[in-house]
Amino acid sequence: DAGITQSPRHKVTETGTPVTLRCHQTENHRYMYWYRQDPGHGLRLIHYSYGVKDTDKGEVSDGYSVSRSKTEDFLLTLESATSSQTSVYFCAIRGGVLNSPLHFGNGTRLTVT
Amino acid sequence: AQSVSQHNHHVILSEAASLELGCNYSYGGTVNLFWYVQYPGQHLQLLLKYFSGDPLVKGIKGFEAEFIKSKFSFNLRKPSVQWSDTAEYFCAVNARQGAQKLVFGQGTRLTINP
């Protein structure tokens, strides 16, 4: 398995609190992605990064921000969590070689009460 | 923008039955196609991928998929399923350029009865 670690694995938080999820990779891959998984929606892209300090929005980016200050870490922040952000969050990485597949982390289950 | 549609939300089969899961995509350019599997409580794992060449691709665990360009389809097949194939299956597509953001279908939950 690709060297991807997501932390925390589970988190319960209250509405209105800030939350940061971390994705750490040991593969030195250029591309990193944050997806959320919800029943009936599959996985939807939140944000992605194509290099240090280079990020862009995905299809469901509202309410989320990201940062990538070094190659190995990609942080996802919910500035003020809402119940609609209760989900399972997956980080994925991809090397710079064209057409290389994505490899996924184990996910973070976030519950916003 | 790309979109992916998986027609079957939940499929229930008996062991040894044949499987075909439908996937259609919408995109005007050249794409890469993937099937991922997610076993209960686990992360997504790559089953197979198509980039170019032979439209019939073989993946792990006896799965295969056929790319039919004229139908914008990439259906997943397995001749004889096992109880251990119980999982959720996702079709995905990305454009063959740039950040190659992967767009997923809604997923198909497969239940195999012993």
Please sum up the structure shown:
By secondary structure, chain A is mainly β. Chain A is built from no helices and eleven strands. Chain A is globular.
Explain this structure to me?
The complex is a heterodimer of chains A (113) and B (114). With 113 residues, chain A is mainly β. Chain A has strands at residues 4-7, 10-13, 19-25, 31-38, 42-51, 54-57, 64-70, 73-78, 87-94, 103-104, 108-112. In chain A, the strands form 2 sheets. In chain A, strands 2, 4, 5, 6, 9, 10 and 11 form a 7-stranded mixed sheet that branches. In chain A, β5 and β6 form a beta hairpin. Chain A is globular, with a radius of gyration of 13 Å. Chain A starts with a strand and ends with a strand. By secondary structure, chain B is an all-beta fold. Chain B contains no helices and 12 strands. In chain B, β5 and β6 form a beta hairpin. The radius of gyration of chain B is 14 Å and the shape is globular. The N and C termini of chain B lie far apart (41 Å). The relative contact order of chain B is 0.34. The A-B interface holds A 31, 33, 35, 40-45, 48, 50, 56, 58, 90, 92, 94, 98-99, 101-107 and B 4, 6, 9, 32, 34, 36, 42-46, 49, 51, 90, 92, 96, 99-107.
